[in-house]
Each structure stands twice: as C-alpha cells, then as structure tokens.
Amino acid sequence: MKTDPQRAARLSVAPMMDWTDQHCRYFHRLLSRETLLYTEMVTAPALVRGGAVHLLDHDAAEHPVALQLGGSDPRELAQAARLGADAGYDEINLNCGCPSDRVQSGTFGAVLMTHPRLVADCVLAMREAVDVEVTVKCRIGVDDQDPEVVLPDFLDHIARAGCRRVTIHARKAWLQGLSPKENRDIPPLDYDLVHRMKARFPDLHISINGGITSLDEARAHLDAGLDGVMIGRAAYHQPADILCGADPMIFGTGAASDPVEAVRAMLPYIEAHLASGGRLHQITRHMLGAFAGRPGARSWRRMLSEGAVHKGAGPELVEAALAQIVEMPERQAG
Ligand SMILES: Cc1cc2nc3c(=O)[nH]c(=O)nc-3n(C[C@H](O)[C@H](O)[C@H](O)COP(=O)(O)O)c2cc1C
C-alpha cells in the first residue's frame, strides 16, 4: 500500500526499543488509521554484517510505518536503508538521539550531534540508496554543547544533504553520568527552541518530541506552527488517550476509534501468532494500558499481566479480561 509518511507525521508514535515492536504497532494501527508509527531502532551493523533481516519483519497493516536505523557508517547505513526500503518501509529514519552506552560505543545515536558533517554524509548516502524519504531524529545537543548554536548548525547540515523532515527531542542528552532513562526526564525541555527552529528553517518539516502527554498539547504545538508531534511514553502507556482521537482531532478524518473494538480486532492476530508458536504475553504486554483511566482498567491489566505468561494462555483470557471493561462500566476507575 502506498502511503504518505509526511502527511502521517503530523502525529507519530516514537521509536522505542523493546516497546514498539511489530505486535505493538499492529495494535496501535487499530487505534489510529493515520498516525505514523516507528519501529524500534535497528542497527545497520546487525542488518548488514549480522544478516538479521528478520528485524525488518512487519505486517502489511502497519503502514504508514518508518524504520529507524542506528549507525554512523554511510556505506553501511545506505545498505541497511536499502534493505529497509526493499522490505516495504515508507521512511528510513536515522537515530541521532539515543544516549545508551552501547550505542555510544558504536559512535551512533546522540553522540552524532557532535558530528554534523558525518550525519550529512550518512543522510546523503542513504538518500542515494533509496526512493523513500530519509529523515533524522535528534536531540537539541549533548553535554556542554550550546543548543542555540549547535542545533541550527546540525539542521543546516542535514538540510543541505537533502533531509526534508526531522524530529527533535527537545532536550539535551548527557552522555556521561545519566542512564538512558534519566536522559529522557532530567535534561530540561526547551520547546521554545524547537519552535524557533521552525521559523529559521521554514522549508524543513519539523516534529517536536519529549514530554507531550495529550492530544490537546499536540494540537497546541501544531497550531503554533510546527509540522508534527511525536509522542512516546504516553502513547505506549495510555494508547487510547493518544491514539483513539488522533484521526479526527489531528488529521480531520474519520471518527474516534473504540479501544474495545480494537482489542476484539486483535483476537484473530493473536490466534495466528499462537498458531505459529508465539506466546500470548508477547502481544498482550503492549495492550496493558488500553483502558488506562477507565473503569475495570486495573482488573484488565492484572488479568493479562498475570495470566498471559502461562503456557497455553490464549484469546479466551483476553476476552475474559475484556469482560471487566464492558460488563462493569459503572465501577470506579481502576
Ligand atoms: C523504552 C524506550 C525505548 C526507546 N528507544 C528509542 C529508540 O530505539 N530510538 C530512539 O530514537 N528513541 C528511543 N527512545 C526515546 C523516544 O523515542 C522519545 O524520544 C522519548 O521517550 C521522549 O518522548 P516522550 O516523552 O514522548 O516519551 C526510547 C524511549 C523509551 C521510553
């Protein structure tokens, strides 16, 4: 299916290692037809040197879906991008924001904020290798860099290399002394700087990311002139709050989706997964927050998190947990 990832990027679910796997994305797609979905980061060396092409597996229903790559070798990234495009991804994104130790040691992720010329070379090589759009996800800077200086210079480099779309996680990464988790919370957010970058680079499609927890906040950023909003943790933990209203509120299409219907639509997918030897919790772990804030949510979460790990657990457990939601609407929120 041909899709327009640039249009879809008005709202996107962030790439999140171990979270936005193909099961998670399948579920999110049932909640929003339009929102752009990102894979977890896949490293170029794993694909190119390790031959781990199974990391590219995805379902046709996931489109529009972008592959995020990690790496810093232009030739290897170009090869990885080609593998991704051949596998059917609508966009190839380069990770310049991830601060984990493992990623730093391979000279990729956020440390690339200190190598804008190398990033431009990577973008150029990837663009030459594929027809789909090549995009970048970055921070506003790292360590003692001055974001006011570094970020425009970085954007200038990637724009000159032909990158037309970028997502900016609106905080620095501190490469020493903070865990990856702390690096998502402790460095202060600077939304204003991202908005000023849009004024300075009007031709660049700029999405803002970091700490956005509602569609109202997302709308406010769009109304103030940004092109897109990327939401990570809130979309994962409260998918209904973020994704069910996304199509009408952000894209002006269709009606709000119903998480109960989405869960029911997961049942055939779950059955197929079990039939091919998979386990229930591999899918349901991404659905625990489906009813966050609704009556019965706590029972839903508990039944699935305790029951789905058992061997032989199947769709009947999901249906029983769903009964906690649909049959007890008057109960207090879980
Ligand atoms: C569990 C987890 C894994 C993540 N993995 C990645 C990743 O693979 N690539 C990436 O660019 N960012 C990754 N991130 C960062 C998110 O994409 C996002 O930039 C960050 O969570 C801030 O957005 P939020 O406040 O909306 O969650 C990860 C975040 C989390 C919580």
UniProtKB/TrEMBL annotation:
The active site is at residue 98. Coiled coil: none annotated. The keyword Thylakoid does not apply. FMN binds at residues 15-17, 68, 137, 169, 209-211, 232-233. Residues 13-323 form the DUS-like FMN-binding domain. Its EC number is 1.3.1.91. It comes from the Bacteria. The record marks 95, 181, 184, 298, 301 as: Interacts with tRNA. Keywords: Flavoprotein, FMN, NADP, Nucleotide-binding, Oxidoreductase, RNA-binding, tRNA processing, tRNA-binding. It holds the Pfam family Dus. CDD domains: DUS_like_FMN (cd02801). It catalyses: 5,6-dihydrouridine(20) in tRNA + NADP(+) = uridine(20) in tRNA + NADPH + H(+); 5,6-dihydrouridine(20a) in tRNA + NADP(+) = uridine(20a) in tRNA + NADPH + H(+); 5,6-dihydrouridine(20) in tRNA + NAD(+) = uridine(20) in tRNA + NADH + H(+); 5,6-dihydrouridine(20a) in tRNA + NAD(+) = uridine(20a) in tRNA + NADH + H(+). It is an enzyme of class 1 (oxidoreductase). One of its GO terms (molecular function) is tRNA-dihydrouridine20 synthase activity. Its cofactor is FMN. Catalyzes the synthesis of 5,6-dihydrouridine (D), a modified base found in the D-loop of most tRNAs, via the reduction of the C5-C6 double bond in target uridines. Specifically modifies U20 and U20a in tRNAs. Belongs to the dus family. Belongs to the Dus family. DusA subfamily. HAMAP family: DusA_subfam (MF_02041). PANTHER family: FMN-LINKED OXIDOREDUCTASES SUPERFAMILY PROTEIN. This is tRNA-dihydrouridine(20/20a) synthase. It comes from Ruegeria marina.
